[in-house]
Write a structure and sequence with these properties.
heterotrimer, A mainly alpha (about 200), B mainly alpha (about 575), C mainly alpha (about 90), A: about 200 residues, mainly alpha, Four Helix Bundle (Hemerythrin (Met), subunit A), B: about 575 residues, 16 helices
């Protein structure tokens, strides 16, 4: 622990603060959703087969469709990031626009799903499975809403041209968050729609 | 570029009062705001402790100083059982979440971390400002919960379901919803803080400040931040479900509706046990800074301390069920969790031995911060050693939920939060406010606090072993507790002395802030970077980012002119 | 701390893989295997999809090891938590 240190020795990390901060944020988010999924899985295992009957009433085709929407929005988000890296501003703006539209489409499908389920009489009070269904998709939906708002604000900045030259890296950070929400859905989909 | 920054800084006086002192992004101002929130909430928590102690010593008599509380909360100073339950709950919640964390992590973490690593500010200054104002909001929500119909939360600071899941059990409706909301805001605040601490430390260290040259305070802060961020998630998920149980009417934690109330306990303690280390580690970090300075010796086993605390942090995720030995959980879990609990005392014992070895052979100066630091170590050993009793399932089944447990965790948290926190405050006060605190008053404060604290909690061990249950409203209802009522009265007298002793501190704190002796740049002859800047520290801390050449604890190096070697001064490297 | 250029794999191929994996997990539900095999299969597929998204879309493949630890440790932690709660919550009700 003595002697001078060169600058290269000092650079313990080449990750910029913004990305490092987002990753720590995602780590805490993993624990929130991880805890949530853990509770669901434990209850489901404890319920024996009693929940399968209830889980039969969610619509796997609609769920699959929504999953494709979300996967595609992840693709357009990462394409927007690639376009920003390659200095293609017009392309980046277009991809951001598609991402926002797909995010809204996901929410629209989800709202349709909720309303048709409630119309059939399945509310959060119709049993523990339904309570979990609404709680899990609701929390995930709130994250989608937040993501759409971030992305839309970036889109507005991109359209006005104020995204460059100082804030374009935010597309990457928003993307990391958006992909994380996508991963959560990747697990929610089989947990809620497929495993009956 | 540095000159340019300085020029900008010269204009910082033009910032309005609001931007400079209230909605400030300066980590030093944010740290002081945390400090004042913590001290205010500590007064609140202390008054609650006084009300509870009076009730336990002289049950159902009018508490002097509680006459102002309107009916139906209290009746002319007489505390009814419902309010007593709310007091125990809110005392615990406030002291852990609104005093311990803001005081040690919020105040000292924010104030010291960028200074110690040689950064101009936190990585995300606006996020930092948001974190303190979120905590402020959380405190307001907590305080407001006393004033809603039905009173404040009264399901214990652990909020066990189904007591907390259905209002019919406690009669508390909005009080407990606000409790959940307040905690959620508090968690958000410290998640933002934790992201900031970690990102700042990882990416913004000054040239030469390698991870193994970080002061231990920084190490403890970031370890605590990691533990907090990784443990709180499942409880947030659980809290959402609990809130749904209370408001929507679902049955996640209500057995009649197919829920599992024990799972709440699991989730709470999966967070709750790491949480006590979140509070503990920064307090220890302060001790680790203070002991070498006043022993004029390097800290003993620097890297071993770091890795011991990291191991303890990792183990803290695997001990939670030792809080639940009598809860009716699967008895097969008792043995593994007993073993991990006893294992976790090993790394902490290593740290305590390192403290002692640091003192050994040093030239010790008994200043106020040093007295408080030594007091912390001394009292914490009692708390740590009694933890082993609680951790082994057979003993715990006997002493669970007695005052033995209450005494145990007060013997760990009080030395850490208050003795350690006061040590830190007396030590860094010159850097925070530019003046020295009064030494004589500080020493009186130390002796009153430590002696009164031990007088409160050592008899409480006896009380607990005698079978006195915690959270009991009136001990005189039980015949077997009547012979021990004298102990209860003694504890209450001692607690009143303990609380009155804090007026010495309050006077010293505010008097020194305005009238204290002006502090020099480095009054304690310490080595770390925060002592290289003079008060008032400008917004961006360092005119030029210092280059670090030395480890943080190079005291009494042979062949050096002075007996301390500041981290940023390039001297001839001294061998041996 | 230069951080301008990133490696960009062909994202459309990755997206096609994700949709393909989604399709086989949906189809698997209708195949006449025992429930145990089906459930294991669809969760393994979900895990693979998550890893693909994290590695390529979130660039974890190209990050330094510290960032990977930040992502992996919480995942391990909640798996440990779930497993150690199974004896109590599932078999002891």
């Amino acid at each position: 622990m003595s002697g001078a240190t060169t600058v290269s020795e000092y650079q313990a990390t080449h990750t910029v603060p913004g990305r490092m901060g987002i990753w720590w944020f995602l780590a805490s988010e993993i624990m929130v959703f991880g805890g949530f999924l853990a509770i669901y899985i434990l209850y489901r295992m404890a319920s024996g087969g009693a929940w399968a009957e209830m889980a039969n009433h969610v619509s796997a085709p609609i769920g699959t469709f929504n999953t494709i929407i979300l996967l595609t929005s992840s693709l357009t988000m990462v394409k927007a990031f690639e376009a920003i890296d390659n200095e293609k501003r017009k392309q980046a703006t277009n991809f951001l626009l598609i991402t926002v539209i797909l995010g809204l489409a996901f929410l629209g499908v989800k709202a349709f799903e909720y309303s048709s389920e409630i119309a059939l009489g399945f509310t959060p009070l119709s049993g523990t499975f339904w309570a979990f269904y609404y709680a899990l998709t609701g929390l995930h939906g709130l994250h989608i809403v937040a993501g759409v708002i971030f992305n839309a604000s970036l889109l507005v900045m991109a359209m006005k041209g104020t995204l460059w030259p100082n804030t374009q890296h935010r597309v990457e950070y928003a993307g990391l968050y958006w992909h994380f929400v996508d991963i959560v859905w990747i697990f929610l989909f089989p947990l809620l729609y497929l495993s009956y | 570029m540095t000159e340019q920054k300085n020029a900008e800084n010269g204009h910082s006086e033009e910032l309005s009062f609001w931007r400079k002192y209230v909605f400030s992004t300066d980590h030093k101002v944010v740290g002081k705001q945390y400090l004042f929130i913590a001290l205010f909430m500590a007064i609140l928590g202390g008054v609650m402790a006084y009300y509870m102690r009076w009730q336990l010593a002289w049950p159902e008599t009018a508490v002097p100083g509680a006459g102002w509380i309107p009916e139906p909360t209290a009746f002319g100073g007489i505390i009814p059982p419902e309010f007593y339950n709310a007091l125990t709950t809110m005392h615990g919640t406030i002291m852990v979440f609104f005093v311990g964390m803001p005081f040690l992590l919020g105040a000292f973490g924010n104030f010291l971390l960028p200074l110690m690593i040689g950064a101009k500010d936190m990585a995300f200054p606006r996020l930092n400002m948001m974190s303190v104002w979120t905590l402020f909001l959380a405190s307001l929500v907590m305080i407001a919960s006393f004033f809603v119909e039905g009173g404040a939360a009264s399901a214990g600071w652990t909020g066990y379901a189904p007591l907390s899941a259905d209002p019919i059990h406690t009669g508390v409706t909005w009080g407990l919803n606000l409790w959940i909301l307040g905690l959620a805001l508090e968690f958000t605040s410290f998640l933002m803080g934790g992201i900031n601490f970690l990102t700042t430390t990882i990416t913004m260290r000054a040239p030469g400040m390698t991870m193994y040259r970080l002061p231990l305070m920084v190490w403890m802060q970031i370890t605590a931040a990691v533990i907090f961020m990784l443990s709180v998630g499942p409880l947030i998920a659980g809290a959402i479900l609990l809130l749904l149980d209370r408001t929507v009417g679902t049955g996640f934690f209500i057995p009649e509706l197919g829920g599992d109330p024990l799972l709440w306990q699991h989730l709470f303690w999966f967070f709750g046990h790491p949480e006590v280390y979140v509070v503990l580690l920064p307090g220890f970090g302060a001790i680790m800074e203070i002991l070498p300075v006043f022993s004029r010796k390097p800290i003993f086993a620097y890297k071993t301390i770091i890795w011991s605390t990291i191991i303890a942090g990792a183990l803290s995720f695997l001990v939670w069920a030792h809080h639940m030995f009598v809860s009716g959980m699967d008895p097969r879990l008792a043995m593994p969790f007993s073993i991990t609990t006893i294992l976790i005392s090993v790394p902490f014992a290593v740290v305590i031995f390192a403290f002692m070895a640091t003192l050994w052979g040093g030239s010790i100066r008994f200043t106020t911060p040093m007295l408080f630091a030594l007091g912390t170590v001394m009292t914490f050993i009692v708390g740590g050693a009694t933890g082993i009793f609680n951790g082994s399932a057979p003993v715990d089944i006997f002493i669970h939920d007695t005052h033995f447990v209450v005494a145990h965790f007060h013997f760990t948290l009080f030395p850490d939060v208050f003795l350690g926190g006061f040590a830190a405050l007396y030590f860094w006060f010159p850097k925070m406010f530019g003046r020295m605190m009064n030494e004589t008053l500080g020493k009186i404060h130390f002796w009153v606090t430590t002696i009164a604290f031990n007088a409160v909690f050592i008899p409480m061990f006896v009380l607990g072993l005698g079978g006195s249950m915690r959270r009991v409203y009136n001990p005189l209802q039980y015949d077997f507790l009547k012979p021990m009522q004298g102990i209860n009265e003694f504890i209450t007298y001692a607690a009143i002395v303990l609380l009155l002793g804090q007026f010495i501190f309050m006077f010293n704190f505010f008097w020194s802030m305005f009238k204290g002796k002006k502090a020099e740049r480095n009054p304690w002859n310490a080595t770390t970077l925060e002592w290289s800047v003079s008060y008032p520290i400008p917004h961006d801390n360092f005119a030029t980012i210092p280059t670090v050449y030395h480890g943080p604890y190079e005291y009494s190096l042979p062949g050096n002119k002075s007996d301390w070697q500041p981290q940023h001064e390039e001297n001839e490297p001294v061998s041996g | 701390m230069t951080d301008t250029k990133h490696a960009h794999p062909n994202y459309i191929v990755i997206w096609a893989w994700l949709v393909f994996l989604l399709a086989i997990s949906v189809v698997a539900v209708y195949l006449p295997f025992s429930q145990w095999i089906t459930v294991t299969f669809i969760f393994v597929v979900a895990a693979v999809k998550a890893v693909i998204v994290a590695m390529y879309f979130m660039h974890l493949k190209f990050e330094e090891s510290l960032v990977r630890y930040i992502a992996i440790i919480p995942v391990l932690l909640f798996i440990i938590m779930t497993l150690s709660l199974i004896p109590d919550t599932v078999y002891n009700r």
